[in-house]
Amino acid sequence: MITIQYLKNYEEMSRYVATLVSIRIQSGEPFNIGTPTGGTPVGMYKELVAKNLNWNKVHTFNLDEYVNIDHQHPQSYHNFMWENLHKYVDTNIHFPHVEYDTEIGAAGGLDLTILGIGTNGHIAFNEPGSEFGSTTRVVNLSQQTIVDNSRFFDSIDQVPTQAITMGLHTIMKSRQVLLIAQGQKKLDILKKALWEKVTTEIPASILQFHPNLRVFYCD
User: Fold this and answer.
1) 147-156: per-residue pLDDT in tens?
2) Does 64 qualify as catalytic in the annotation?
3) I want to staple 84 with a disulfide (CB 3.0 to 4.6 A). Which of 24, 45, 160, 177 is the partner?
4) Is 54 a catalytic residue?
C-alpha cells in the first residue's frame, strides 16, 4: 500500500524534498529530472538554489507549458522556471514540444520526476479522461484547472485554455517519482488517487502502478 509521508509544514516539506534532489545532483552522475511548476514546488526550488550545487550534468525537463503564451509572459512556465531556478543555476534546460519523448529517450530517460497534483487529480496537465498511454501532446485544460490557475492571472479570461504536457506514459517511465502536495483539498484528492480505483477520471491514480513512488504532504 502506498503511504503518504506527512511533514509538519511547508518549509519542512520543501527542505526534505530539496535534500533528496540534491543528493542525486551531488553524486556527479548525469541526472535527468522532470520539473514541475505551480505554487507547491517554489519552496523546493528556493532550497535547491541555496545549496549552491554544480548543475552541469543535470538536464531539467519541464512537465508542461501553456500554448499561445509568450515565453516572457509573467505567467508562462518558461518565466516561472527562470525566476525560480534557471537564472540561478547552470543547468541544461528542456521544455515540451512535439518530439519531446524522443528527446527524453535520447538523453537516457528521466531519472526522477517531481509532480504536484491538481484538485481534479491531474498531474502535469493530464486532465481527467487522459489515456494512460498518452505521451507529450497539446491538451485542452478543464474548467476546474482554468479556475484554479486564474489566481495567477488578473482575470480568468486571461488563463490559457490549452497547454502542451508530458503524457502519463512519459511520466510513468521515469525511474522515480516524487509527488508533493499541500492543503486539505490536495489531501482529499491524494487519498482518492492513491487508495481508490485506478481510473482515467483521476489521472494521478495511475501512480499506484509506479514501482518507485514517494508521496509527501503538508497542511
Assistant:
1) 999 999 999 9
2) yes
3) 45
4) no
